[in-house]
Write a structure and sequence with these properties.
eleven-stranded mixed beta sheet; 519 residues; six-stranded mixed beta sheet; 33% helix; Protein-Tyrosine Phosphatase, Chain A; binds ligand UAG; 17 helices; alpha/beta; binds adenosine-5'-triphosphate; Udp-n-acetylmuramoylalanyl-d-glutamate--2,6- Diaminopimelate Ligase, Chain: A, domain 1; UDP-N-acetylmuramoyl-L-alanine:D-glutamate ligase
Length: 519
């Protein structure tokens, strides 16, 4: 079941009813006169998502003040609006008198987590809760956790960049980490549906912007750290601190850290919560050690050894050493949460644990001797390096790598993305991704400059991604691999403010059929 297209968020079907007076006992806001007995049943910060009985939170944003949408929130059935002093003035100036307006000192976002947890009754969850942060692979770890939880007999729910999912109830995600109001609504629905294990992807942005407030994770993890999001953080130190903030007692009871990187080693030392460590590099000191024992394009097998003689064998049906690391990290997180992982070890060893990660190294071809085509979401130098190294280890054929880069995002990573692509692939096709407000030819030129510096791959520029897909297929022979990095699960291309329909997976499927390579 996919949630109705109208639904922007997944919410409980039978929400609890809370009065404003009750909320005001815990949350410092001023109640509008005579409104203490007003009942609210939900919270949202988006006027387009308001449902009957919601407390609409009018947030000041970069482009709008949410309070300027108060009239529309009231029309959709909001019971009250909570905002700051500026928002109150805006609502008054607009003559909105249908809603009790509650005013907070400071930024209302800072209260949103606690407020939402109280409205939805999610302040103390019985389910085991897992959070994962790092630069690459968070979504993949979330899906590994969910698969292992299910294998261990728990009922999983998840929130990732790709989707929010509770069993067959699913919506496509907007943000990697939902705003706190959306997150707590989702958690309340998970509780309703008997979910007993929850995996949540936590972006650096989410931690600083109060999006995970009101959630206390049983176990959090940090997997790796490399360049991304410098448009926001300016330098790597600030970016690191933004992620490291998850390892604090207010957010989590304990953590797992991959200590392959200097950033991981540093976090393990400085963490304010107890951590256990995982190393995938031979000879590095850690509590758990992972070794890859075999790998092909169809998957990777590994051995994981831990404290007190713990020993597991596993197989993940997706290629790449890093996928073994993602699975091992998920396994250790379950163990740290007190879930007996021996229960899942057999299934893992025999490759019986199904793992489908939407748009992450997702194979569109059906295996076999022809060229194989994978669509991926990687858009950082770290992800490119991991994927191309992995492909180099499992492919004898030619590697055709196609990608573009985000406009209006970290521009300093483009040359390095180009260089890694040029060094690791045989043929590189550079096309457009989401140019946004930037001239696309400028983005492609920066990627091409980087790729040229590697002096290795054949380089081709084909702006139109649809044409680039077909070109890649025409260049591939049986045994070759085409990897299309960037769009993953997405179904749009963002060009100059417009969201144009574009699904790389559908496009590739169609092109393979045209070429007679897919039934
Ligand atoms: C820079 C940033 O954090 N922007 C976020 C911010 O937008 P904004 O301040 O521009 O909001 P605004 O448009 O001025 O609107 C202000 C308020 O009015 C509301 N509004 C607006 C229009 C309307 O019709 N009705 C309405 O109620 C909005 O919901 C908002 O509450 O608040 C919005 C509402 O929650 C977010 O969607 C938006 O995230 C944008 C899309 C974004 O790009 N965020 C990035 C930085 C981000 O968070 N990325 C991370 C990491 C991804 C990764 O790992 O690669 C993530 O977790 O996704
Ligand atoms: N452990 C890992 N180390 C390095 N690269 C990885 C790892 N796991 C996955 N990747 C690569 O990074 C890409 C993005 O993976 P994934 O979507 O799981 O990461 P993410 O951290 O959720 O990214 P985002 O925050 O942008 O959604 C993958 O498709 C793969 O190419």
């Amino acid at each position: 079941m996919t949630s109705s297209h109208e639904d922007l968020t997944i919410r409980p079907q039978h929400p609890q009813r809370v009065t404003l007076a009750n909320l005001a006992e815990h949350i410092p806001f001023v109640i509008a006169e005579g409104s203490g007995e007003v009942i609210v049943t939900g919270v949202t910060i988006d006027s387009r998502d308001v449902r009957q009985g919601d407390l609409y939170v009018g947030l000041p944003g970069a482009r709008h003040h949410g309070a300027s949408f108060a009239a529309s929130a009231a029309e959709r059935g909001a019971a009250a609006m909570l905002t700051d002093a500026a928002g109150k003035d805006l609502a008054a100036a607009a003559g909105v008198d249908a809603l009790p307006v509650l005013v907070v000192d400071g930024h209302p976002r800072a209260l949103l987590g606690e407020l939402s947890a109280r409205v939805y009754g999610t302040d103390a969850l019985a389910a085991k809760t897992f959070g994962i942060t790092g630069t690459n692979g968070k979504t993949s770890v979330v899906y590994c956790i969910a698969a292992l939880l299910e294998a261990a007999g728990l009922r999983p729910g998840l929130s990732s960049t790709a989707e929010r999912r509770i069993g067959d109830e699913v919506i496509v995600s907007n943000l990697t980490s939902p705003e706190a109001s959306e997150l707590h609504g989702l958690l309340a629905r998970m509780v309703e549906r008997g979910v007993t294990g929850i995996a949540i992807e936590v972006s650096a942005q989410a931690i600083g912007r109060h999006r995970i407030d009101g959630v206390h994770f049983d176990v959090v993890a940090f997997n790796n750290f490399s360049q991304d999001h410098l448009e926001e953080y300016g330098d790597m130190e600030t970016y690191f601190q933004a992620k490291a903030a998850l390892f604090a007692p207010e957010h989590a009871a304990r953590g797992v850290v991959v200590v392959d990187s200097p950033a991981g080693q540093r976090l393990a030392k400085q963490s304010a919560i107890p951590v256990t460590t995982l190393a995938t590099e031979y000879g590095r000191s850690a509590d758990w050690h992972l070794a890859v024992t075999a790998q092909t394009l169809d998957g990777v097998s590994f051995v994981l050894q831990g404290p007190a003689g713990a020993h597991f064998r596993g197989r993940v049906p997706v290629f790449g050493r890093f996928m073994a690391e993602n699975a091992a990290l998920a396994l250790i997180m379950l163990h740290e949460a007190g879930i007996p992982i021996e229960q899942v070890a057999d299934g893992l060893e025999n490759g019986l644990i199904p793992l489908h990660i939407p748009g992450r190294l997702e194979e569109i071809t059906a295996g076999g001797p022809g060229p194989r085509f994978f669509v991926d979401y990687g858009h950082t130098p770290g992800a490119f390096e991991a994927m191309l190294d992995a492909l180099g280890e499992v492919t004898d054929g030619k590697i055709i790598f196609m990608f573009g880069a985000d406009g209006d995002r970290d521009t300093t990573k483009r040359a390095e993305m180009g260089r890694i692509a040029g060094a690791g692939a045989d043929t590189v096709i550079i096309c457009d991704y989401h140019p946004r407000s930037e001239p696309p030819e400028q983005i492609r030129a920066q990627l091409l400059d980087g790729a040229r510096a590697a002096r290795h791959a054949e380089l081709i520029e084909e702006a139109d991604p649809r044409a680039a897909v077909r070109l890649a297929i025409s260049l591939a022979e049986p045994g070759d691999v085409i990897l299309y990095a960037g769009p993953g699960h997405e179904d749009y291309q963002e060009v100059a403010g417009a969201y144009l329909p574009y699904s790389a997976r559908d496009e590739v499927r169609g092109a393979l059929r045209e070429a007679g390579l897919l039934a």
